[in-house]
Amino acid sequence: MQNLETVLDVKHFTEDLFWFKTTKQGEWKRPFRPGEFTMIGMGDDDISRAYSIANSPDDDWLEFLSIKVQDGPLTSRLQHIKVGDELEVSTRPIGTLLLTNLNMYNLDHEKPRLWLISTGTGLAPFLSIARHTEAYEYYDEVIVTHTCRTNDELVFADELRAHGAQVYQTVTREDPGPTRYSGRITGKIRGGDLFRDLGKSDTGFDLTRDRIMICGGPDFNQEIRDILEAQGMEHGTMKSPGHFVQERAFVQQI
Length: 254
Ligand code: FAD
Prior knowledge:
This protein has seven helices and twelve strands. It is of the alpha/beta class and 254 residues long.
């Protein structure tokens, strides 16, 4: 049976990006875990799409960060939702971007780090993880990287910093200004700039210290995966937790 939730708030950041908040009144089989996604529809047809839940499971509401695809079957209409509208939201969240899919047992460093590496709306699951307390209980540092085409797509940084995360932002098609960086994150990782810019003493990931989550387009995901696997890092699953996990959820846009 379909579960309807009511829109509580909507904010438009750019012509391509918006955020919305809904009630969380449905009968969830279990609470969602930070990093999971669910299915959303308009409630008046069969079209539904996967959406990462962008807020903490502790909240008594739901938040989502959404692309606007002008001819997209869902988002051509979803982008026009207003407070009070009803949306279909599945109460069966799933996903692989889970802290439990990262291997904590072979972390052999007194200050372990969690890296949440995103492009575009790939930030959404990391908003959930970095707004929840669990990540900070396991890791000394939680570092969120976000790469977009333009500065005004780089959202939520202040709030994530207030939760205790470090935030590193890059843009690919604009001058980054004084507090952000220019270019793709893959280049920043390869060249060590990511670490230098953040004031770290090392210039690359450390198998005994770093655990990594990745969410972006397929090309980006693959490129990062190649970088990490070349270092001996292994992709984690529920059965076999590893050094990194990724969700192949988004198309390439940057
Ligand atoms: P679609 O027919 O689904 O897509 C049309 C085209 O738009 C795609 O072929 C692609 O070129 C482009 N596109 C679609 N989604 C994106 C995107 N997110 N970024 C850049 N380009 C895109 N989307 C979100 O906006 N927020 C999320 O939190 C989110 N989480 C997802 C989680 C998973 C596991 C998966 C598989 C997808 C997720 N998506 C998310 C994508 C989402 O499911 C839809 O594709 C998106 O809402 C567009 O729907 P649509 O019907 O309008 O267009």
